[in-house]
Amino acid sequence: MRGVNVLILSKDPTLFESGLEVFGDTRQRHQRYARQLRERFGTGSSIRIIGYTPDNPRYQVEHLADGLTLYPTRSIHRFTFLWGVFRQLSAVLRGWKPDLITVQTPWEEGMLGYLLSRLIGAKFFLQIHFDLFSESWREEHRLNKWRRLVAIRLLKRSDAIRVVAQALKRKIQDLGIPANQIFVVPVGINFKPIDSGAEKDTYKEKISPRLVGKPVVLFTGRFYPPKNLSLWVEIAEQITCVNPEVIYVMAGDGPLFQKTKQLVQEKQLSDKFYFLGKVGHERLPEIYAAADVFLLTSNYEGYGRVIVEANLSGLPVVSTRSTGPDDLIVHGKTGYLHDLDDKEGLVQSVLRFINDENLRKKMGDAGKTRVENEFSTASLVKKLVDVWETVCGELPEGQKRNAGIEGQS
Fold it and tell me: Rounded to whole angstroms, how far apart are CA atoms 27 and 29?
């Protein structure tokens, strides 16, 4: 049995990081995909990934367990990624033919993946992990207007599309693409919350003794324009006017880190804020454990993994309404969603949690249960391979399910 082969073109350099504390679990997750693929279609199945890496000799071809092979581009710049893919193609395709080619960026490597799929007769599976249709995203970069046009053309030519949220599926359907070609499969999160039974003040004290006994509102993530951190600080300012006991913790780094700190100083809130800077993935569980409420004020979110992490930590979430949060938060049950211009609503929802410990626990527990049931890595890995099986539905019967595993969820 030949099995099923999948070629992935990726710009995620963490695929090549082993033994390091990196944000996320990209490498391990793709090993799970490969293992699930072999269990489903037989040991002749494999995944090959051509992935972006800097031009460094330490990045070499890696043959990992369960049929996963990584090919580094060793590019002098991210802009030369496609040239690096071309250089690796002859080695990747020597004696090996993919049944499915998948990409995550729907322009550059998207165009290459599409052309390659047509040349060799493979299925083309386009993935969208962000809100391509958001005006805030379009305004981020002068090329995004043209990238969107290219992406829409590729979406209409894809054999199938994977999105991470139902709202994205609806937007793509509005382009006239049939619903049965669009599959909603979020990204599994490798996050283990604190489960020590220790009091919350134990973790607050690790950040600062001044947090002990105080309500804490948390942000984790990148400090850059889509997160709309000026709104986050404005909400903190209004909350402080009502309850000056509240403390605000912000963990992360990015181009707007200093500007956000400066805004806090201008509003004379420095004694209420703790900026932790960039923190390792291993430290995040304790930071979530120190918080009482998670606040997200993004202009848009394609998914919103920080919401999943907060929920797994038992935190209720207050968020602006956008593509990812719409799927992850059940309004009034696991948290609250508000329109971007509803600053007063965001303020009141945070205060509602701060003032009601029972409500915090009730919604925090509900969010944790929902995420554990619907967004676990194991279930989402299986679901994606289910989708691959559906997309490759014209394979000979002997190449299909090999281990008695049920089909598409």
Answer: 5
